[in-house]
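[agent] plan:
  1. take the single chain provided in the ticket
  2. run structure prediction with default settings
  3. attach structure tokens to the ticket
  4. add a short note for the reviewer (M.T.)
[agent] executing step 1
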Amino acid sequence: MIPKFRAWFGSEMYDKPVVYDGEFYLDWRDFENGKTYNGVVLMQFTGVFDKNGKEIFEGDVVNIFGEKLSKIYYSDGAFCVDILIGGTPLHAFLSEQLEIIGNIHRNPELMEEVLND
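[agent] step 2 finished; step 3 output follows
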């Protein structure tokens, strides 16, 4: 699988960032113009889809079984769900059990719910 990313910069999400030769560009126009950015947060696609067919990226907040909010993160070579101590590998869940409800950048208030859950 070819790695797929999206990017968070300032208050905006960019769905098709370009990473070339160690430099980051928000889109191909920036690449062609040579405009790079610092302070961008890249989020990698996990290879997993939620129950609605939406791609799950690192940094997404998902609802598991319709009752538990959890953050998706990368650790020790695997994407994980922050649901148990140490996390549970994302591949342990079926797509039908997961629903994206936001992400940690656009919806920081969801992190409070994750921490209090």
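[agent] step 4 note for reviewer: The first helix runs from residue 28 to 33.
[agent] ticket updated
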